[in-house]
Amino acid sequence: MSIVVLLTHPARANLDWAVVIALSNAWGGTNPKWLNPAVAAEFGVDTVPSNHEDVWQEMQAIGIDLLIVSAKRRRKSVLLADMDSTMIGQECIDELAAHAGIGAKVADITARAMDGQLDFETALNERVALLKGLAQSVIATVISERITLSSGASQLVSTMRHHGAYAALVSGGFTDFTAHIAQILGFDENRANVLLMKDHLLTGRVALPILGKEAKVTALNDIITARGLTAQDVIAVGDGANDLGMLHIAGMGVAVHAKPSVAAQCSLRVNYGDLTSLLYIQGYEIGQFHDF
Q: How many angstroms separate the CA atoms of 18 and 92, rounded?
């Protein structure tokens, strides 16, 4: 059996029960139930209907995300999460560049890299080189003044860990940021690139090897091997081209507010909901949510 989940952003809470009932009836589904009234609902189907992509488009037109997951091994034991524009609302390198007065130039490179138009390592080296000479103290300023957590980030990490899951923050960004965000949100570990410094100034280089698309896959494999699990036990979330490897391998790979070219390559797409969507698709109900 597969589970059909309909959801929207909690701030909108505009999921109509009549829409849920109508779709369940049309697809011969089980009796639907609320996971969170007006925010998320689910029902089961024996087979995935052939018109599910057309219906997905119809739901998108009214601000609703539709996701279909297997009922088997639905609740995952590992959360593997990207950071920039996923767990936080910003791209950290763009915020550093803004302080250096080259924000627009670096942001353009970032956007093209995350859309898959540029090789990630080449783009990262090019952007970091432009930051040469920036004071190390700017990092703390950016963290305190410009970085915000994404909606639902705290509930996602805290709820999964409360129910026994392992949470890893794996970013193509920088350890100066991931260490801070991992501590705030309660991740068990974090992996990212290391900005090289000399005399409290950025050198314009990162330590090798660079953590990119393949390194995120390596992180996934390291974690499941160490814990005696399989990729089916993992839910991964990201938004950029360098996340596609882990999104495709994980039992649930969810593209959240992703670049169009990335979302097109993922079957689980969240365009309206927040990060609590990852809890709903695992079958968590609002009463089971936990928060730090």
A: 42
Chain position carrying tokens 């767990």: 87
List the CATH code of the domain at 1-72: 3.30.70
Q: Could you read off the pLDDT of 257-291 as tens digits, one per residue?
A: 998 989 999 999 999 999 999 999 999 999 999 98
DSSP secondary structure code for residue 78 in this structure: E
Q: Exactly one of 54, 65, 84, 274 is catalytic; name it.
A: 84
* Longest CA pairwise span in the chain (Å): 67
Start and end residues for every CATH 3.40.50.1000 domain found in the chain: 75-292
The secondary structure of residue 96, as a DSSP letter, is: H
Q: Is the pTM of this model over 0.85?
A: yes
Alpha helices in the chain (DSSP H): 17-26, 52-61, 92-99, 103-114, 120-129, 137-146, 153-162, 175-185, 213-227, 244-249, 260-263, 277-280
Alpha helices in 163-243 (DSSP H): 175-185, 213-227
pLDDT in tens, 182-202: 999 999 999 999 999 999 999
What are the structure tokens assigned to 2, written together? 């597969």
Known catalytic membership, residue 54: no
CATH architecture of 75-292: 3-Layer(aba) Sandwich (3.40)
- Is 119 one of the annotated active-site residues of the chain? no
Which of 82, 176, 239, 243 is labelled catalytic?
82
Alpha carbon 3 to its chain centroid, in Å, reads 21
